[in-house]
Amino acid sequence: QKEVEQNSGPLSVPEGAIASLNCTYSDRVSQSFFWYRQYSGKSPELIMSIYSNGDKEDGRFTAQLNKASQYVSLLIRDSQPSDSATYLCAVLKAAGNKLTFGGGTRVLVKP
Amino acid sequence: GAVVSQHPSRVICKSGTSVKIECRSLDFQATTMFWYRQFPKKSLMLMATSNEGSKATYEQGVEKDKFLINHASLTLSTLTVTSAHPEDSSFYICSAGSGTSYEQYFGPGTRLTVT
């Protein structure tokens, strides 16, 4: 079992719709969770961080964390073609400061 | 967010030569920086953790004598790929944490091509 798992996609979403991305992690004691966006040929860009159970909203993005079920999700509302990218879920273990990344979910927003 | 720069953004070198990549935190001090490599259509692979003033910690399977890391100051870490071979061609990315949170910010990456 991978430490951080994501569906590789592609997740195809019509423009204006909601894109829903999921991520599960195996280390129950993980405390910090991050979503990064990576455009093709570019480095990852931090979108959201979440540390507590529940929802966290930032603009069109909402991160959701459920530690009991060991999953974290990202919702993208009013999806735009510019949101087409690979979204990486990253988990920070309680011990140490190394991020563990999922394989990423490729999102395609179609006009 | 915090700004991290990398130089060069792209480099082509001949097999057997060495290449140095610089990673700088521009608006904060980074006691820890991280070096990743990424192959096409693959996720990030952590190579090593670079700690200011001490030796880097390498991940399993990463040759420390081939990938030399130096973190001489709180704003600069360097990765030197020694005796590069075509299989070392990859996208190398550094990241740094500001120390005030657990968030890590990535540099723009360096695309290395070894011919």
Question: Tags for this entry?
Answer:
heterodimer; A: 111 residues; mainly beta; six-stranded mixed beta sheet; five-stranded antiparallel beta sheet; globular; B: 115 residues; seven-stranded mixed beta sheet; four-stranded antiparallel beta sheet; 11 strands; 0% helix
Describe the structure.
The complex is a heterodimer of chains A (111) and B (115). By secondary structure, chain A is mostly beta strands. In chain A, 0% of the residues lie in helices and 55% in strands. In chain A, the strands form 2 sheets. In chain A, strands 2, 4, 5, 9, 10 and 11 form a 6-stranded mixed sheet that branches. In chain A, strands 1-3-8-7-6 form a 5-stranded antiparallel sheet, with no helix packed on it. Chain A is globular, with a radius of gyration of 13 Å. The model of chain A has no long low-confidence stretch (mean pLDDT 94). With 115 residues, chain B is mainly beta. In chain B, β7 and β8 (76-81) form a beta hairpin. Chain B is built from no helices and 11 strands. The mean pLDDT of chain B is 92. In chain B, the strands form 2 sheets. In chain B, strands 2, 4, 5, 6, 9, 10 and 11 form a 7-stranded mixed sheet that branches. A 4-stranded antiparallel sheet of chain B has the order 1-3-8-7, with no helix packed on it. The interface between A and B is medium-sized, with 19 and 20 residues.
**What average pLDDT do the residues of chain A reach?**
94
Shape of chain A: globular
Tally of DSSP helical segments of chain A: 0
Which stretches of chain B are poorly predicted, pLDDT < 50 over at least 5 residues? none
Shape type of chain B:
globular
Share of residues in strands of chain B: over 45%
Mean pLDDT of chain B: 92
Query: What structural class do helix, strand and pairing data of chain B support?
Result: mainly beta
**Which protein chains make the most extensive interface, counting residues with beta carbons within 8 Å of the other chain's beta carbons?**
A-B, 19 and 20 residues
Question: Whole-number radius of gyration of chain A?
Answer: 13 Å
User: The biggest beta sheet of chain A, please?
Assistant: 6 strands, mixed
- Stretches with pLDDT under 50, minimum 5 residues of chain A: none
What is the terminal separation of chain A in angstroms? 36 Å
Secondary structure tally: strands of chain B: 11
Radius of gyration of chain B: 13 Å
Cα-to-Cα separation, first versus last residue of chain B:
36 Å
